[in-house]
């Protein structure tokens, strides 16, 4: 039975956030609000939780999962970032962008892309999620909350609880999110002297990055 946390979007109750963070530490998968849409999220180093997250989303190991990071310094621990890439990242973080980068050894191999050894990373701009990340003290593994065989992300916490009541450890309700996934930008070509490539147009404005 999923625990349901109703939080103020601008001044979330720390006591409830600590309870949600404890569920993550215990291997639970949560539905969390972001600055794009709701997402499934779990502990990065918990294989069983990561497998359950993929099952809930209906994707296999070839699907890029995303690390939700507190800031760019934390992001750089999990991805190889050169000066060109870093300048572009600074333009777009925090915000509704996901960046594909080469994963470092800090990323478990089972959560990076099996062929490319890449990982999706982002620094969200959502008060509740950022405070949850601060309490958790490390990135969360996440994927957009799109039900299997559907194409649109969900943004209603009550609907999410109704659908996954018995499969999630918790649902964080901080009000409706935008119902649009992040813009995905592949930065790996920049490592070989190429240019960044937008692979999915979403809520983030690519023009902000000069793309």
What would your notes on this structure say?
The chain has 211 residues and is of the alpha/beta class. The protein has a single domain, classed as DHBP synthase (Alpha-Beta Complex). It is built from 6 helices and 10 strands, in the order βαββαβααββαβαβββ. The protein has a 10-stranded mixed β-sheet, sandwiched between helices. β2 (30-32) and β3 form a beta hairpin. The model has no long low-confidence stretch (mean pLDDT 92).
Which secondary-structure class do the elements indicate? alpha/beta
Radius of gyration: 16 Å
CATH topology: DHBP synthase
Q: Mind telling me the CATH class?
A: Alpha Beta
Number of strands: 10
Q: Layout of helices and strands, plus pairs?
A:
Blueprint lengths: L2 E4 L7 H12 L4 E3 L6 E5 L3 H11 L8 E3 L3 H7 L4 H10 L4 E6 L15 E5 L4 H10 L3 E5 L12 H8 L5 E4 L9 E4 L10 E4 L11
Parallel strand pairs: 1-8, 2-8, 4-6, 5-9
Antiparallel strand pairs: 2-3, 3-7, 4-7, 5-6, 9-10
Entry keywords:
211 residues; alpha/beta; single chain; DHBP synthase; 10-stranded mixed beta sheet
